[in-house]
Amino acid sequence: MRGQPDILINTPEIELWPHGLLRARSNHDARALSRARHVLRRKRDGRYLAVDLREGVLPLVHRLMHEPGIDAALDALELHPARRRPGIERVGELPLDRLQERLDQLGIDGDYAERTGLALVAEPDWLAFAGFDRYRRPLWLHVNAARAWKHLQAAALRDSVVLEAISGYRSHDYQLGIFERKLARGLGVDEILAVNAAPGYSEHHSGLALDIGTPGELPAEETFEQTPAFDWLTANAGGYGFAMSYPRDNPHGIVYEPWHWRWNPADAAH
């Protein structure tokens, strides 16, 4: 797929990463990744499961065919329309059938959506490469949000304002991991919910939202509102379809997040 747009093919439990965007974690991985067209990566913990070579799929774990979700991942590798026709605009959605399992693990009851007014958010079945974030990690977004982000970033730079992506798309499994890590540090679920949406309810799942920062400023801090970058976003982001999702005293009970912006196609003028 050299010379074609980089896309992340997404399945419920496994992501299919394009060549060259993942770092090898061992000499064995390095040899395999150097020849790979795609890498099959487990969403729950980031484990590399297999690589797609021209001659076939090379397992990187024992008993690959017993891996949950492997059949769907292999089917997507061969059949996904974004793989066969890169640049296709249609983006599908993954099913939400594993969501309740995640919420049950956290002890989040069924009226969470009613209390917060947050909607369930499905993951896209593929995402576009939107450059790198502050930490040189690949940034994945919905293809239209990726295009809008690049235009927004370039426009800011023309005004001598540097915008950095802190994070973009996050899977349901990734969001669950945030909760698990904070619970392990002794925080309660209610404390975490004041800062992070429950798995399945984060705008990051859609690939339409990203956290934005600027050099010299700590990520995801309220002090971002005191920067020229925030002033520029407040004045200009709406013209590119971006809006801040969680202003002060928002009805969802989420803390003020001046760094969190979501792209809405209905608002885009560029």
Explained architecture:
Residues 140-265 form the D-alanyl-D-alanine carboxypeptidase-like core domain. InterPro entries: DD-CPase-like (IPR052179), VanY-like_core_dom (IPR003709), VanY/YodJ_core_dom (IPR058193), Zn_M74/Hedgehog-like (IPR009045). This is M15 family metallopeptidase. Helices cover 29% and strands 21% of the residues. It has 270 residues and is of the alpha+beta class. The protein is globular, with a radius of gyration of 19 Å. The strands form two sheets. The chain has a seven-stranded antiparallel sheet, sandwiched between helices. A hairpin with a 5-residue loop joins strand 3 (38-42) and strand 4. It has helices spanning 27-35, 70-79, 81-84, 99-106, 112-116, 143-158, 172-184, 189-193, 228-236; strands spanning 7-10, 14-18, 38-42, 48-53, 56-59, 126-132, 138-141, 164-167, 209-213, 240-244, 260-268. It is built from nine helices and eleven strands. It has two domains: 7-84, no CATH class; 99-122 and 129-268, Muramoyl-pentapeptide Carboxypeptidase, domain 2, CATH 3.30.1380.
What is the alpha-carbon Rg in Å? 19 Å
* Series of secondary-structure elements, N-terminal to C-terminal: EEHEEEHHHHEEHEHHEHEE
| Helical residues, percent | 25-40%
Helical element count? 9
Shape: globular
> How many distinct folded domains?
2
CATH fold group of the largest domain: Muramoyl-pentapeptide Carboxypeptidase, domain 2
Residue windows where pLDDT falls under 50 for at least 5 positions: none
